[in-house]
Design brief:
It is a single chain. With about 300 residues, this protein is an alpha+beta fold. It folds into three domains: about 15-70 and about 210-240, Pseudouridine synthase (2-Layer Sandwich); about 75-205, Pseudouridine synthase (2-Layer Sandwich); about 245-300, Archaeosine Trna-guanine Transglycosylase, Chain: A, domain 4. The protein has seven helices and 17 strands. Strands 1, 2, 3, 4, 7, 10, 11, 12 and 13 form a nine-stranded mixed β-sheet that branches. Strand 5 (about 85) and strand 6 (about 95-100) form a beta hairpin. The longest helix has 12 residues, at about 25-35.
């Protein structure tokens, strides 16, 4: 039996990538994974090819917290054009309808926008990664097939009109997971009786991360020319993606038994919810949760916690 080929080097951490325009999130991930020669990597929720901005990439043990970032709130800057509806609800699709925008004022737009604040219902677009009977909706849409979709409840926490110059305007959006900004744009357009689509989208925040520390693929390539291992300096510690969870410090004994899968008693631990777990010397060992009996139980542990 031949030896298994080395799939890449062990890299652990989170990279805050500024995804470029015109490529998919998976393409961006594969480019960066190749630069790092990493054995394991994943992203935390897709951005459309039209979209740019913050795409956290998780490497190695960091992939164990990707689901928590997928569930996190997001923030976007979106530019929307009124008067045109497209097949994909963004500038990549063909225009399927044009309607006049006469009479739409900034005051009217603000009034309509405010109506979308809070908990609302959204219908996932056909051009999305949602699955229907095991197949992605966008694959069905490309074949001209439209299927019935279920409404989803999402939350718009903040919706600011930052610019208005008919027929275009710009919004700053703070929203829950699962929000489709293209659908939000379309729905606003329908409320105004003129239609609308997204012409620019930039993600500025994901959970605890904002866009201030993003790096581009060009940044990584430039660093690579100096020193391959200098790329690792761009990686953030895994627990940085979980700062919205309270931290729990464990004794050596508690950490030992928790790593064996046992729930442990921790004095002054939170009374409910998920928690970040630390062994002595601030060693992050994973995510736990508080049981009904008050004990701390393991949820997702790092196998490389000693690194």
């Amino acid at each position: 039996m031949g030896r298994r080929r080395n799939r890449g080097r062990d890299v652990d951490g989170i990279l805050l990538l500024n995804k470029p325009l015109g490529i998919s999130s998976n393409d961006a991930l594969q480019k960066v994974k190749y630069l790092y020669k990493a054995a394991k990597a994943g992203h935390t929720g897709s951005l459309d090819p039209l979209a740019t901005g913050l795409l956290p990439l998780c490497f190695g043990e960091g992939t164990k917290v990707s689901a928590f970032l997928l569930d996190a709130d997001k923030r976007y800057t979106v530019r929307i054009r009124l008067g045109e509806t497209t097949a994909t609800a963004d500038a990549e699709g063909d225009v399927v309808e044009r309607r006049p925008t006469d009479g739409i004022t900034e005051e009217k737009l603000r009034e309509v926008v405010e109506g979308f604040l809070g908990e609302i219902q959204q219908l996932p677009p056909m051009y999305s990664a949602v699955k229907h009977e095991g197949e992605r909706l966008y694959k069905l849409a490309r074949r001209g097939i439209e299927v019935e979709r279920k409404l989803r409840t999402i939350t718009i926490y903040e919706l600011k009109l930052t610019s208005f110059e008919l027929p275009e305007f710009e919004l700053d959006v703070h929203c829950s997971k699962g929000t489709y900004i293209r659908t939000l744009a379309e729905d606003i357009g329908e409320e105004l009786s003129c239609g609308a689509h997204v012409i620019g989208l930039h993600r500025t925040a994901v959970g605890p991360f904002d866009g201030e520390e993003m790096v581009s693929i060009d940044d990584l390539n430039a660093s690579l020319e100096v020193d391959r291992y200098s790329l690792d300096s761009f990686l953030k510690p895994i627990d940085c993606g979980l700062t919205d969870l309270p931290g729990v410090n464990l004794s050596d004994d508690a950490a030992y038994y928790l790593r064996l899968g046992q729930a442990v008693v921790v004095p002054k631990a939170p009374t409910n919810g998920r928690v970040r777990l630390y062994a002595p010397n601030d060693i992050f060992i994973g995510v736990g949760f508080i049981q009904d009996d008050g004990k701390v139980a393991p949820k997702r542990l790092m196998s490389a916690a000693e690194k």
